[in-house]
Specification:
about 160 residues, alpha+beta, Glutaredoxin, four-stranded mixed sheet, two-stranded antiparallel ribbon, 4 helices
Length: about 160
C-alpha cells in the first residue's frame, strides 16, 4: 500500500495520467461520480467549488465509476460530453474506475485506508477532502451535497489552512 497521497496517480478521462504529486500544497476534493444517478446534479456544486476556490488552492477531482447501479455506462467521450454539456464541468476528471473492493483503484484504496471502513464508498458521490499536506481530513456520503453549508465550511477550512 502506498503510504503517501502524493505517490498516487490515476489515468485521466482524456489525456495524461493525473498525478497527486501535482496537487502538493493544494487542498483536494475527490468525488466518485456517475452520470445517470439521482445525485448527478452534485456535479454543479463540485464545479462551483472548483470555479470559486481553485485560484485559492483547491483542486476538485471527479472519478467516474460504474460500481453502483451501473449508473456510469458511457465511454470516456460520452462521460466528458455529459459532464461539460449538462453541468459545465471543467475540473479534472479521471477515467472510469473501480472505487470499491479489492479491485479499487489505488487512490480509493488509499482513501479507505485513511478513513476506515465507513469511508469506503457505498454509492456514487462520496466526497473526500485531502489537506494541503496530503492527509485525508474528512469524507462525506452522497447525502451531503457539495453546496451544503457543512461541506463548504469543511472545504474552506482545508483551503485556508496554510
Amino acid at each position: 500500500m502506498t503510504t503517501s497521497f502524493y505517490d498516487l496517480q490515476i489515468p485521466a478521462l482524456c489525456g495524461e495520467p493525473i498525478s497527486m504529486a501535482d496537487f502538493r500544497g493544494k487542498a483536494v476534493v475527490i468525488a466518485n461520480t456517475a452520470s445517470k444517478c439521482g445525485f448527478t446534479p452534485q456535479y454543479e456544486g463540485l464545479q462551483y467549488l472548483w470555479s470559486h476556490y481553485g485560484k485559492s488552492g483547491l483542486v476538485v477531482l471527479g472519478v467516474p465509476s460504474n460500481d453502483f447501479g451501473q449508473q456510469e455506462p458511457g465511454t470516456a467521450s460520452e462521460i466528458q460530453t455529459t459532464c461539460s454539456r449538462n453541468y459545465g464541468v471543467s475540473f479534472p476528471m479521471a477515467t472510469k474506475s473501480t472505487v470499491k473492493g479489492k479491485e479499487a483503484t489505488p487512490l480509493f484504496r488509499w482513501l479507505a485506508s485513511q478513513g476506515g471502513i465507513l469511508s469506503r464508498p457505498r454509492w456514487n458521490f462520496y466526497k473526500y477532502i485531502v489537506s494541503r499536506e496530503g492527509e485525508l481530513l474528512n469524507w462525506y456520503t452522497p447525502l451531503t451535497a457539495p453546496d451544503s453549508d457543512r461541506f463548504k465550511a469543511s472545504v474552506m477550512r482545508a483551503v485556508m489552512d496554510r
